[in-house]
């Protein structure tokens, strides 16, 4: 099949599987991964990666990170609690250490071990927020803690990705650590000035423009500028895209205008990101599972339990009971787009220098499969846990009301 035919097929099949996935109350990306697996070499052998599709996939990654920045709740981040920080740290540390130790036991190199550790430690905070919104639990004690802990988790994940990229890819051999981190500091200072002061003023001027898509165009210019700037100073494009998302987030919170966010989301989720997820699904290698069944089983087990245990322990040792701790642990265990971005980074590293990630097919396939299986199990567990908490609270309220009525009757 030529590229245009593959592109059309990807969009048609991914749309069908996204609809099925969402009707089953799962994230759309699970449908995309399954569509890619079926269309790829493992089953139908209709879709194969080429330069054009990879370019669309790269744009998809950039928009994934932009939307991640837009979805960060900055107001809640300002009110972050000590317990949420503890939950996030343990929910990262437990699965990351388990993943790194497992990879080293299976005689993988340190870069592969770190890639596995990071991929197992990232929470899908956007998925959690969506489920909490659906259950009308986003303003509860558990809901607010999960959102704030998810923000911490995202920050730790992005720092981990930045350090990984510095270590193996982005920093030139003749660049000192001091020089590299000076460039990073410069990037964040300039980005803060542009995002906080200059960008909102530019957006205000678009109100005077006659073009109906002026805001959307300026937002795209901002995204591409941040991505290019990040690349110039030696950082990953995905970090630049995330910072651009934060700048857009700041403007929307300041002016309460979300029109261009809908445009960005429509272009991203309707066109770019499904291609990225489908290509990842197509990269799954079944042969690798057969030849390394024990590794696959261990990593999937860690993916299912590592963050759940870490998050639940963090909740329990602070201020939460057993039921609340289980709900928080299951929420922290969900996986999403940023985990798959780590797989994308691993593929880039392997293509540029195969020695760095010699087991890329096994690692990539296992991580993608873990996203699929973890969400299938932990999302229903999160729903059950939240509903169970709400049911218990309602029963308590009814008992309290009955007690009050009986006291009034006796009087």
Compile the SSE list and pairings.
Blueprint: H1 3-23, H2 28-39, H3 51-71, H4 74-78, H5 82-105, H6 110-119, H7 125-134, H8 141-170, H9 177-205, H10 214-232, H11 237-255, H12 259-282, H13 286-291, H14 293-316, H15 322-332, H16 337-352, H17 360-410
Write up this protein.
- With 411 residues, this protein is mostly helical.
- The protein has a single domain (3-410), classed as Na+/H+ antiporter like fold, CATH 1.20.1530.
- Helices cover 81% and strands 0% of the residues.
- It has 17 helices and no strands.
- The protein has helices spanning 3-23, 28-39, 51-71, 74-78, 82-105, 110-119, 125-134, 141-170, 177-205, 214-232, 237-255, 259-282, 286-291, 293-316, 322-332, 337-352, 360-410.
- It is globular and about 80 Å long.
- The chain starts with a helix and ends with a helix.
- The model has no long low-confidence stretch (mean pLDDT 83).
At CATH level 2, the architecture is Up-down Bundle
Look up the CATH topology: Na+/H+ antiporter like fold
β content, as a range?
A: under 5%
Count of domain modules: 1
How is this structure best summarized?
This protein is an all-alpha fold. It has one domain: Na+/H+ antiporter like fold.
Highlighted features:
mainly alpha; Na+/H+ antiporter like fold; globular; 17 helices; 411 residues
């Amino acid at each position: 099949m030529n590229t245009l035919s593959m592109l059309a097929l990807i969009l048609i099949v991914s749309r069908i599987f996204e609809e099925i996935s969402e009707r089953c109350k799962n994230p759309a990306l699970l449908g995309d991964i399954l569509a890619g697996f079926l269309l790829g070499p493992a089953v139908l052998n209709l879709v194969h990666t080429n330069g054009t599709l990879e370019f669309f996939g790269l744009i998809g990654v950039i928009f994934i990170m932009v939307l991640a920045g837009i979805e960060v709740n900055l107001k809640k981040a300002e009110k972050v609690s000590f317990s949420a920080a503890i939950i996030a740290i343990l929910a990262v540390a437990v699965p990351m250490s388990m993943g790194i130790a497992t990879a080293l036991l299976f005689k993988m190199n340190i870069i592969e071990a770190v890639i596995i550790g990071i991929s197992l430690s990232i929470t899908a905070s956007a998925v959690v927020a969506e489920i909490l919104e659906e259950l009308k639990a986003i303003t509860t004690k558990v809901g607010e803690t999960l959102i704030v802990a998810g923000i911490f988790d995202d920050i730790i994940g992005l720092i981990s990705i930045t350090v990984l990229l510095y270590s193996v890819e982005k920093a030139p051999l003749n660049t000192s650590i001091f020089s590299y981190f000076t460039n990073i500091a410069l990037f964040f200072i300039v980005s803060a000035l542009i995002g906080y002061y200059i960008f909102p003023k530019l957006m205000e001027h678009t109100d005077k423009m006659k073009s109906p898509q002026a805001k959307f165009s300026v937002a795209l210019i901002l995204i591409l500028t941040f991505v290019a700037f990040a690349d110039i100073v030696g950082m990953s494009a995905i970090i630049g895209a995330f910072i651009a998302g934060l700048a857009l987030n700041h403007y929307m919170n300041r002016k309460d205008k979300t029109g261009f966010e809908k445009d960005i989301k429509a272009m991203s989720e309707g066109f770019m990101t499904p291609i990225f997820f489908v290509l990842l699904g197509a990269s799954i290698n079944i042969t690798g599972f057969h030849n390394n069944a024990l590794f696959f089983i261990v990593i999937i087990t860690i993916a299912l339990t590592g963050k759940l245990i870490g998050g639940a322990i963090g909740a329990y040792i602070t201020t939460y009971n057993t039921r609340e701790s289980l709900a928080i642990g299951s929420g922290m265990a969900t996986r999403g787009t940023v985990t798959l971005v780590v797989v994308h980074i691993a593929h880039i590293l392997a293509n540029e220098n195969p020695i760095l990630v010699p087991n890329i097919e096994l690692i990539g396939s296992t991580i993608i499969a873990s996203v699929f299986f973890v969400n299938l199990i932990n999302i229903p567990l999160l729903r059950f846990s939240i509903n169970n908490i709400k049911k218990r609270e309602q029963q308590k309220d009814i008992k309290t009301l009955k007690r009050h009525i009986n006291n009034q009757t006796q009087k």
